[in-house]
Amino acid sequence: MAELPTRYEHAREKEIYKRWEDSGYFDPDVLAEKGAVPADAKPFVIIMPPLNANGSMHAGHGLVMTLEDIMTRYARMKGRRALWLPGTDHAGFETQIVYEKKLEKEGRSRFGMDPRELYKEIYDFTLANKETILGQIRSMGASCDWSREKFTLDPEIVAKVQRTFKKMFDDGLIYRGKRIVNWDPKHQTSLSDVETSFKERTEPFYYFQYGPFTIGTSRPETKFGDKYVVVHPADERYKQYEHGQKLGPFEWINGPVTATLIKDEAIDMEFGTGAMTITPWHDPVDFEIAERHGLDREQIIDLHGKLLPIAGEFQGMKISEARPKIVEKLKAKGLLVRTDEAYAHTVRVCYKCETPIEPQIKDQWFVKMELLAKLALDAVKKKQVRFIPERFEKMFTYWMENTIDWNISRQIVWGIPIPAKICEACGGGAADLDDTLQACPKCGGTVHADPDTFDTWFSSGQWPFLTLGYPDHRDFETYYPTDVMETAHDLVFKWVPRMVFMSLYLTGRVPFHTVYFHGLVNDPQGKKMSKSKGNVVDPLELTQKYGTDALRMALIVGNPAGAETALSDDKVRGYRNFATKIWNAARFVLSNRPQDPDVDAPLSEEEKGYLAELLEKVKPEITKHIDEYEYHLAAEKAYHYFWHTFADIVIEREKDKLKSGTPAERSAAYRTLETILLESITMLHPFVPFVTEAVYQEFLSPTGPMRDKNLPEFLMIRRWD
């Protein structure tokens, strides 16, 4: 046969991918129709976590694409009707933040813009990014079924998400209520707990004299409306006071006040003096205390983070400006007892911009979590859902056992509109899917359309079944529940629980049987990548330099589930050399094929041993690793076998026979090497699909050794076993 080119050029990847895509084999129905798998083959289904369509692919996305493609290619080669359904996410709040930064650079702001114009601009921006990122997914070799590709703002997805809201409202699982929420004063929207994070702060902690009590706080700006002192019922220091006892009047920030003594077990007797005043409007713990005892609540800080008229002379000031001035005033009144200058604590912030959250009481839509959390917990306890690594089950359980009602309202334009009418008179509201509600069902007052949009997790929590056409599409009947959800480990308390309980609530089934968590992809020094630090490693630049196969191996080898991995140029370059090694080994074997090989030439005992080692030991071990989700071990074992056993030992020992052996010896040597090569590229294909497919196509070429052997037309559909 004609010799292979001396070097494998990864520029061929686009051509190879196009041939795969054009074949239709990414579609499980086509697989069965063309006989690549049995018509009654068991499905294998992964729903791709929808990539945010607001930017470019990063290294973490590269890991996602690699892992899920390995799972899918392996299942397809094992004879399963493999469906990997791709999709992208409008990503609500995150995308709006990205676009707001774009507006800032242009000297514009979303505030004051017509909401419809803003939505249209973000929509066009997102669709352009969506096409870019879909191309980048293809560049990673992702063998997903593009005929089923979905977007979270597809009309049918939007309609079904809104119908879910109506059903949950009718079932009493969604209500509109005035509760405390995480308010982002910069972006002017509420956020759920999972959209916030905690940041360490060291700042002064003040002790003030409040009548007969010494109270401690790091936020004196919230204390203008304080009229309740709360202590623990068992605190001996305050046993002389009765619950509900009136105290005062005594001097406070802006004059005399009267306080009421409240006893509640939420108080930590070991913190500070064990006595605290509460600000129910601006603190979730205080809010719950006020709810339990029916206490008044008064707003001190407005939605922009400025003090209201109750603050007197401090009205209109930002918190940072007012705080030291308030302390000085209290000090001048002789009410400052002492200051701890280095009080270390955590502050809740927006997870995207780190703006401190200002809790506020607002009318919002909430999902009642008690029943839904129990559904999810029961499924996990019954082992209907498995976590890899197992340690994440404890985290999942903790969040479901300590959940609070879920705020699903967002005061942003970018997202799925909440189909409801709200009443300003009473604060109530009702689902209104068909836009027919004319008056408030609670008070009869005037209603208007809710301008808010859904928390993005409300729609993405339904992603596994909505993408398959729930409730009555053939795909839902055929391919649901899915098999594996592969996702980032930080979504164990954000996305994963919502998928589990939303599926159980709506379909009666868990959405998948296994959750595989991957970790962070860090910079070469093992530090988290960040644009501000300038240490971001661009996966697309690496694939252009070294090929996609090299990047895939660099992301997988040495990277077990739930772990973190460092990605460097050197590591990827090293696996480019592996792709070259595969090509060169294939080039040697195929170029040394005898003119008329004797297919019946007997193998030597040594050659039989080579085949036995591969087929009876190495391949079963690799298969076992993949079946147990140990992709890092499977890839490493396949790598070492090919390089250090096949290339370094077997080929070297068979060279002399190919060069100067008898015709029978040459035929036997070639048959041994050809068999090992074909089996090796089959084992390696899920990990390095491009170079292995390129080698396989040489087997099938007009001058190749397998042109008349009726092999499958692509390596990706060659049977593994």
Strand content: 15-25%
The CATH topology of the domain at 545-717 corresponds to Isoleucyl-tRNA Synthetase, Domain 1
State the name of the first-level CATH class of the domain at 545-717: Mainly Alpha
What CATH architecture of the domain at 545-717 would you give? Orthogonal Bundle
Q: With helices defined by DSSP (H or I, 4 residues minimum), what is the helix count? A: 21
Helix content: 40-55%
Rg calculated over all Cα atoms? 32 Å
Q: In angstroms, what separates the terminal alpha carbons?
A: 28 Å
Q: pLDDT below 50 for ≥5 consecutive residues: which ranges?
A: none
Choose one word for the global shape. elongated
Count every beta strand, where a strand is a DSSP E run of 2 or more residues: 26
Question: Structural class, from helix and strand content?
Answer: alpha/beta
Strand arrangement, major sheet:
7-6-15-17
Structure description:
It is a single chain. The chain has 721 residues and is α/β, with parallel strands linked by helices. Among the domains are: 191-350, Alpha-Beta Complex (Isoleucyl-tRNA Synthetase, domain 2); 418-451, no CATH class; 545-717, Isoleucyl-tRNA Synthetase, Domain 1. Helix content is 40%, strand content 18%. It contains 21 helices and 26 strands. Strands 7-6-15-17 form a four-stranded antiparallel beta sheet. A four-stranded mixed beta sheet has the order 11-12-10-13, with no helix packed on it. It has a three-stranded parallel beta sheet with strand order 2-4-5. Helix 14 (496-507) links the parallel strand 23 (484-488) and strand 24. The longest helix has 30 residues, at 631-660. The mean pLDDT is 94.
